[in-house]
């Protein structure tokens, strides 16, 4: 059964497939089922010798705000022991914290998706507008060719409650550079893509109304390349990046994420999960931003 929150189209004549995150009410955030559906479509593209490019985009002018925070920590499932479950120990389940083995098991699978996307054997083009946050920001950076709106909001705000050692650290330092990577991870700042246009992080930074056409333009250009040459090049790129920048990335990413979801919060620090339980997700985000706001000096 397909998930209509992820759409898949194939333009066989031009050798281009398009994957669209179609969850606009949640700003195209995704849960595990959506992520698995994206992975399934990517496998179809990888296995089809007649496709050269996959274009990744979001519906209604928003790329993706990453993992669905309505389900934050819920992705680890029911953490009660078998004895507790059989005894119906509901109170214990509310208070228990996921074990490290549960965190590592789930995060190993989750980060396998990003690792595979980063090393995808066909050309990946990102059509990025609106928001690219969290996992959405990571996917935007992982694309081979990225077209982004100048007013698109990008960043890793989840570092404010999961800690700065979050996501593919190797990729952040390699693609953003160590100074910007540290700034964004250590503050959780969300910035507009236009403010870092001069750094050349994205292939094509343009006005919002040009993003779709520009992304299609780059996809069409890449699709004209020899298909065998593209696949060979992608494997060569992967080898070079693994040897120069990404050594240890596959393991480090999920280990640090598993640790990050097990933070202990001191008095006065912002605890997103506790705040969400008390006030709901929307209000928790507002209170998060209020807590972390520091006015610029005059």
UniProtKB/TrEMBL annotation:
- Classify the source by domain of life: Bacteria
Catalysed reaction equations from the record: a (3S)-3-hydroxyacyl-CoA = a (2E)-enoyl-CoA + H2O; a 4-saturated-(3S)-3-hydroxyacyl-CoA = a (3E)-enoyl-CoA + H2O
Q: Which GO terms describe its biological process?
A: fatty acid beta-oxidation
Q: Which residues cross the membrane?
A: none
Look up keyword Lipoprotein and say if it applies: no
PROSITE patterns per the record? ENOYL_COA_HYDRATASE
Task: Spell out the InterPro entries in the cross-references.
Answer: ClpP/crotonase-like_dom_sf (IPR029045), Enoyl-CoA_hyd/isom_CS (IPR018376), Enoyl-CoA_hydra/iso (IPR001753)
Q: Name one GO molecular function term.
A: enoyl-CoA hydratase activity
Q: What keywords does the record list, in alphabetical order? A: Fatty acid metabolism, Isomerase, Lipid metabolism, Lyase
UniProt function note: Could possibly oxidize fatty acids using specific components.
Q: Which family does it belong to?
A: Belongs to the enoyl-CoA hydratase/isomerase family.
Q: What is this protein called?
A: Enoyl-CoA hydratase/isomerase family protein
